[in-house]
Amino acid sequence: MPDLGKYADAVLSSYAVSLGLIVALVVLSILRARKVRSALEEVEARVKKDG
Amino acid sequence: MSSIWEYANPKKFIATTSRLLPWVTGLAVVLMTVGLVWGFFFTPDDFRQGSTVKIIYIHVPAAMMAINTWAMMLVTSLVWIVRRHHVSALAARAAAPIGAVMTVIALATGAIWGQPMWGTWWEWDPRLTSFLILFLFYLGYIALWSAIEDDDTAADLTSILCLVGSVFAILSRYAVNFWNQGLHQGASVLRAGALVGDTEERVSNVFATPLFISMAGFVMLFIALVFLRTQTEIRARRMRALLARERMQ
């Protein structure tokens, strides 16, 4: 860990906030992708079955 | 020769981006890891800014992507307006939350960086203010898509909003040049390295190399997320169409 001196709070909080937001964006994008994909498969199967 | 408009076909778009997605994602992870680890652990402190200079490896790429995301949305919105390709409108919709997050990161890290350097979290400086307005445009754009049920009407109206918001995306980039005032410094990154002789305001090579790698990583992350999120929007649109057809029977 580098010695960040008196600015350690500023540097570390910048990285924490940014990486937290990026991870949240990626996770939410993946979760929504999975949810929509399975919901579409369900609807397509139902439509196919009902003709 | 194949045309770019082939990718306006949703099936072709999903098939192609599905093949590319793992590679783009891998590249994003590698470049961001190298850029951020190099910048955080292996660069010296700046003689004026101390260790706060390490914030540059996140702040600058995020600010760059905040503006470039809007630029991408502008291009895809124009494609929608002119050629009526649904994939392009959905790509703009998919990109907006990414741009909003990048704008928040740029604003937040800028405030955290500004406090010890300028003695204030916020200043109604031309660049900061235009970034804040750009963020509000992102929120308005996302809200407008959600508020309108008909996809084509939503795409029309959000495309117009995107054209209007482009003024602030341009201002976010060039505000410092237009108004020679405020706390935020002028452009220094693209004058990095040995490109110019002026050594006064340019970013030193010691900081520039990991910064450029981090910027490339953010670009790859953006592309990967746009691929994934556009696929999702295409599927969601198809699902809405099927459900609507089902209700009519």
Automatic annotation (TrEMBL), chain A:
Pfam families: CcmD. One of its GO terms (cellular component) is plasma membrane. The keyword Nucleotide-binding does not apply. InterPro entries: Haem_export_protD_CcmD. It is found in: Cell inner membrane. The keyword Cell inner membrane applies. The chain crosses the membrane at residues 12-31. Keywords: Cell inner membrane, Cell membrane, Cytochrome c-type biogenesis, Membrane, Transmembrane, Transmembrane helix, Transport. It is a single-pass membrane protein. One of its GO terms (biological process) is heme transport. Its main location: membrane. Required for the export of heme to the periplasm for the biogenesis of c-type cytochromes. Belongs to the CcmD/CycX/HelD family. This is Heme exporter protein D. It comes from Thalassovita mediterranea.
TrEMBL record, chain B:
Keywords: Cell inner membrane, Cell membrane, Cytochrome c-type biogenesis, Membrane, Transmembrane, Transmembrane helix, Transport. The keyword Transmembrane helix applies. Signal peptide: none annotated. One of its GO terms (molecular function) is heme binding. It comes from the Bacteria. The chain crosses the membrane at residues 20-43, 55-82, 94-116, 128-148, 155-176, 207-228. PANTHER family: CYTOCHROME B_B6 PROTEIN-RELATED, HEME EXPORTER PROTEIN C. It is a multi-pass membrane protein. One of its GO terms (cellular component) is plasma membrane. It is found in: Cell inner membrane; Membrane. Required for the export of heme to the periplasm for the biogenesis of c-type cytochromes. InterPro entries: Cyt_c_assembly, Cyt_c_biogenesis_CcmC, Cyt_c_biogenesis_CcsA/CcmC. Belongs to the CcmC/CycZ/HelC family. Residues 5-184 form the Cytochrome c assembly protein domain. This is Heme exporter protein C. One of its GO terms (biological process) is cytochrome complex assembly.
